[in-house]
Design a protein that fits this description.
162 residues; alpha+beta; Aminopeptidase; 4 helices; 7 strands
């Protein structure tokens, strides 16, 4: 069968969620669109060039993000390194959906993706969400599916694209 297999995953937020455990040398920062949007977009583009996602050119991406009814800048979770470079982002919608998760290749498999998601879990739970969902390609080469399953996400749907 042709096309990419996409999985929709869900994790309950009913029980208390773990506090983020930020890797050494990493700190969370508040997203300020005017300061961070270009660098977030650059990280998404770099992360997705290795497969597992796609991001439009900045001139399309930025206004479509900003103008989406589910966009809230407080739900863009950033992490910076010791040089203040953005090395991780989790962009969530108000519907408790993880739109994008990207970690710079040098920071993968060090706990940064988990820390970003734990922060998203905490904030969305405080906002009253009972679960969080996301989509991932089954053959995502970044190890995303393994990360999501290790954090308690379970498959609720699968379908083929293209």
């Amino acid at each position: 069968m042709a096309g990419r297999l996409v999985l929709r995953l869900r994790r309950s937020l009913v029980a208390p969620v773990p506090e983020p455990d930020w890797p050494r040398g990493i700190r969370p920062v508040a997203f300020v669109p005017e300061l961070h949007a270009q660098n977030v977009h650059g990280l998404l583009r770099r992360a997705y060039t290795q497969g597992g996602g796609y991001v439009e050119p900045f001139a399309i991406w930025s206004p479509s993000l900003r103008d989406d009814s589910e966009y809230d800048p407080a739900l863009v979770f950033l992490a910076t390194d010791e040089r203040d470079e953005i090395v991780g982002v989790a962009q969530c919608w108000t519907s408790a959906f993880v739109k994008d998760l990207a970690v710079a290749p040098a920071w993968r498999r060090k706990g940064l993706g988990a820390a970003l998601l734990h922060e998203a879990f905490r904030v969305l739970r405080e906002r009253g969400a009972s679960s969080i969902t996301l989509k991932v390609e089954a053959d995502n080469p970044s190890g995303a599916l393994r990360l999501y399953r290790s954090l308690g996400f379970e498959e609720v749907e699968s379908y083929r694209l293209g």
